[in-house]
Fold this protein.
Amino acid sequence: PEVVDKNSSRRKTLLESCGARTCITDAIISTMLSQNTTDKNSKAAFRSLKKAFPTWGDVESCDEIFKIETAIKVAGLAKTR
């Protein structure tokens, strides 16, 4: 129980530092999209990505990378991200 509480606390801290996302994958992608752009643009790119690909499995199974690039282009550097 003590270890579980400690890990739960660490996870909460990590998620809060990544934009208070409930899913660690959301937090990682959100962080990646926020590099070298404004908060407004990174949030718009994340929303656009989630609208185009509601699940991360949808992103993973996408065979046409340009669709992902199009979804995140508002953040800039879409080909790099």
The first helix runs from residue 2 to 17. The mean pLDDT is 82. Residues 18 and 27 are 5 Å apart (CA to CA). The radius of gyration is 15 Å.
